[in-house]
Specification:
Two copies of one chain form a homodimer. The first copy, chain A, is of the alpha+beta class. The first copy, chain A, is built from five helices and ten strands, in the order αββββββαββαβαβα. In chain A, a hairpin with a 4-residue loop joins β7 and β8. Chains A and B meet through β1, β3, β4 and α2 of A and β1, β3, β4 and α2 of B.
Chain lengths: 200, 200
């Protein structure tokens, strides 16, 4: 059984090289090229794979098939619906650890709407947390060009102790970790994982 | 970084309670009720979840959507195709470890056709193996009522050293582990994982 050491709340790391908030981030220009969070994560995860850093991948979108048939291309689905996701979008291995996260964007400047995270996904995150996996949310406030990593522990703490339908950005500022954007490793979230979970 | 100890090939465990091959397995009658391997795995994984033993789940089937529209039920997919899977079907956490496997059935009595495993899935299993994850195949020979766990290491060893399109059942007998069927924990593969990877 692995022994994962969490920081206590408030026991934050200092990031000497400035994982800092605000629009003065010199890397932010890349954001303006119209990359979505998903593209940034795909590019970052590919970098991790190509450099044998981690193996983290996106799961398929769950689809419920109602009607299928055959045509010249083989089996074709004629009627299907997107299902509510029962897990998060991304998972994999890093340094032998199970890692799992959900990534979301919001245009809102002051809060993150909890309607973005489905009930099944919260159950999933609780399972991961109980099983000592490393998990978190990556939330991008697109209008602010800010991307935060929020550990599941702190996410669950919030929703278990607040009856609100949103998480204010101040909570991300207090309990989340700002991910600075880079050129190739677009959003190098493992750098932050190393520090939070003390893996390096 | 976790230190996973593999057995050397040939260094097999003894199973005093008889994880044995052959049709004399007294649990085999349940198989005849027409349970598929997938059903058995779903039931077993649910047992693991309900009893806080492990959190292992099935990934969605990858589907490529070509045409979508809206109807009274919301967004409806009008044309889509099953994609070749790029990962295995199941993964999750057990005792803090990343665990990942693919499950396949074959009606054949003497060999397992490798056409059942896609190239991308083999690449996926190599990534897991290189990243020190626990991974394996679960293969059921339905005509024989035999279900084997074959560690990825031994699976890769075979395909890297043989140009054949099948794995003979004798290879499963030598390098695989027979999973006995039980009533509730239909196929309690974690019992075998504990022994192979020395987790208990």
């Amino acid at each position: 059984m692995k022994n994962i050491v969490y920081f206590n709340i408030g026991d934050k790391m200092n990031y000497p090289n400035g994982i800092k908030k605000g629009n003065d981030n010199k890397y932010i220009t890349y954001k303006n090229r119209g990359m979505t969070l998903e593209n940034d994560l795909n590019q970052t995860n590919q970098y991790y794979i190509d450099n044998d850093i981690a193996y983290i991948y996106k799961k398929p979108t769950p689809i419920k098939v109602v009607k299928a048939d055959y045509n010249t291309n083989g089996r074709v689905i004629k009627e299907a619906y997107y299902s509510e996701p029962s897990t998060t979008d991304y998972n994999g291995i890093y340094k032998g650890y199970y890692i799992d996260y959900e990534a979301k964007e919001t245009k809102n400047k002051s809060y993150f709407p909890l309607s973005n995270i489905h009930a099944h996904q919260i159950t999933h995150l609780r399972h991961i947390e109980n099983s000592k996996g490393i998990s978190f949310l990556i939330v991008r406030f697109t209008s602010l060009n800010l991307t935060y990593l929020l550990p599941t522990k702190d996410f669950l703490n919030y929703i278990d102790n607040n009856k609100k339908s949103t998480i204010p950005i101040s909570y991300f500022e207090s309990y989340g970790y700002l991910i600075k954007e880079k050129y190739i490793k677009r959003i190098d979230y493992l750098e932050i994982v190393d520090k939070i979970w003390r893996l390096s």
